[in-house]
Amino acid sequence: MQQDQPTERILTKPLALLTLGHLITDFGQGALPVLLPFLKTAFNLTYTQVGLIVLVQNLTSSVIQPVFGYLTDRVSLPWLIPASVLLAGIGLAITGFMPSYTTLLIAVVIGGLGIACFHPQASKSAHLLSNAATKGRSMGLFSVGGNLGLALGSIAMSLALNAPGVLTNTLYFIIPGLIMSLLLYRNLRELSPQEPALQSAAASHATTAQGQPLNYSLLAILLGFVFIRSSIHTGLTTYIPMYYINYLSGSPVYASYLLAVFLFAGVVGTYVGASLSDRFGRKTVIMGSILITLPLISLFQYTSGFATLLILALTGLALISSFATTVVLAQEMMPGYVGMASGLTIGFSIGLGGVGATILGYIADHFGVPSVFTALSVLPIAGLALASFLPGKLFKR
């Protein structure tokens, strides 16, 4: 039995750097939901206008990602990794200084473009740095970075908004973006998927599916599932703070803690789900995640205290446990086009969740914030139905 198998090593220096870069890049996506109640007050916004902010961020940060995915599959653009981290930091940093709603949307667009540029190129590198037996865990680690960034971003923004200066404290978010950008730039050669070793890895991945044409129907089903999961996630991250701050007139600090519990549980679920998918199959994890989520969302409004924290933690863990798994499944469906696959799953379908946030804003304006959670509790049923048609066997070992 061979003892030394370097290909089984998962956390390498390049993967660690990509994971940290993912963390810093997604700071803004975690910070924005905490920022929204303050922006609503500062600009006297309706819930529909708040939903439009979320939609703009999702369109620019996610929906256009397949465009960058297509480019990174065709042309070597490793410089996008450090440049995009810096751009995302700049967009978040200037948000608190915008004098009008229009300029606020422009700041959101700038930060969103940074996020959109980062994900396809970086996830492609993470994919090519892994082997067939560890793809789920490698993508799980990379995805943990992003989901941890969401959680830490919410906490950091909460601390910033409760310090003197309030909205103008967003300026401090340029610091981690600048430092991480410089670190990634100094190690750019190790991160580039165009290195010879990585080219051979890419060729290996591509040849495994020769003669197996892409099944567009199955890909559409997978993207539909990701859209539903994203709508649920975006809805919860947007309206958990709104529910406690604007509807219940509760403490913004407590609301940020609730959001942080939800997001941190998602961090744990990301890696747990990815690891289980390597062992039991992608479909098992995807269906299991949405099935567990189904009853949890319905219970949210009827709990208080510790029970609320527990429900949110379980919801975050279950809902996001399929995140990395859906990315890997798409990459397996599209060998040789992993940048595009990443852009479609991490970007396009997730970004369309912003459309759901805008619709939920309309529901909140006309029927009240609690009705948002009623609507969210129905979506897992559609997600479960779609997941049942995905390729693969349940509990495959």
List keywords for this structure.
397 residues; mainly alpha; Growth Hormone, Chain: A; 77% helix
Helices and strands, in order, run as HHHHHHHHHHHHHHHHHHH
Number of helices: 19
Mass-distribution shape = globular
CATH architecture: Up-down Bundle
The overall pLDDT average reads 84
Can you walk me through this structure?
- By secondary structure, this protein is mainly alpha-helical.
- It has one domain: MFS general substrate transporter like domains (Growth Hormone, Chain: A, Up-down Bundle), CATH 1.20.1250.20.
- The chain has helices at 13-25, 27-43, 47-63, 65-74, 80-93, 101-128, 135-161, 174-186, 188-191, 196-207, 216-247, 252-280, 282-299, 306-320, 323-333, 338-351, 353-367, 370-376, 379-387.
- It is globular, with a radius of gyration of 20 Å.
What's a concise summary of this model?
This protein is mainly α and 397 residues long. Helix content is 77%, strand content 0%.
Please outline the helices and strands.
Elements: H1 13-25, H2 27-43, H3 47-63, H4 65-74, H5 80-93, H6 101-128, H7 135-161, H8 174-186, H9 188-191, H10 196-207, H11 216-247, H12 252-280, H13 282-299, H14 306-320, H15 323-333, H16 338-351, H17 353-367, H18 370-376, H19 379-387
Helix pairs in contact: 1-5, 1-6, 1-7, 1-8, 2-3, 2-5, 2-7, 2-11, 3-6, 3-16, 3-17, 4-6, 4-16, 5-6, 5-8, 6-16, 7-12, 7-15, 11-12, 11-16, 11-17, 11-18, 11-19, 12-13, 12-14, 13-14, 13-19, 15-16, 17-18
